[in-house]
Amino acid sequence: MDANFPAASPLHVAVIMDGNGRWAAARNLPRSLGHREGVKAVRRIVECAPDLGVGVLTLFAFSVDNWRRPRHEVGVIMELMAEYLRSETDRCVEEGVRVTVLGCTQGIAPALQAAVREAQARTAHGKTLWLRVAFNYSSRDAILSAAARFRRDRDRSRAAFSRLLAQNGEHIAPDVDLLIRTGGEKRLSDFLLWEAAYAELHFTDVMWPEFGAEDLKCALNDFRGRERRFGTVGRAAVGANEAVPAGALAWLE
After folding, report:
1. What is the CATH number of the domain that holds 51?
2. Cβ–Cβ under 8 Å, residues 66 and 74
3. What distance in Å separates the CA atoms of residue 59 and residue 224, rounded to the nearest whole number?
4. Is residue 111 part of a domain?
5. Does pLDDT of 252 surpass 50?
6. What rounded mean pLDDT belongs to the chain?
7. Does 89 map to a domain?
């Protein structure tokens, strides 16, 4: 399918934005400048995503394990997050972009906490794109927290568990359709492990500061050329003349 034509229904695309530091190091620049260029890439992708058929965009900005990085670098990332939220909230309101932040906001600077609250409140009615930023986030921590509450929940379904994973009272996001990682690494790094159970994975060598609309189109073209089976057999395996009996897969529902 041509990437210029949006999907029949909006997609949930998740991105591990990797390569800021290595992009800067390759140019003999401070790592902080790589993160600043990475913010520009976020703006580009948020702007082009809706026209490419993306309805939910989840970006991995900072993990719980990233606190192990040098103090100065962590400080820069915190400042950039607050700066981004303050500077982009008006634009998000105008463009209909709803912003929510995943992860634990306790322990981060009060100014950043305030920026998160303001961005979420002011953009709450956005319908064009749901931008979810995973910040101070760990998928394993989220699953552990949900599992503790799940023991007290009478509804033991997967849907019920997904509701418990939703944080800050947000609505449940659909499962991830496509997960992209930039920067050449090929791992999930504790990102949306439950939500990405059947996601298609796309790894690219492009560093995040250089990632743009054409790269997203390429990833979506690749995604739309795949056959998603969700545990069943593909059409070719079933055969053109071999129909699946009615109700045979009802147990999967």
Report:
1. 3.40.1180.10
2. yes
3. 21
4. yes
5. no
6. 88
7. yes
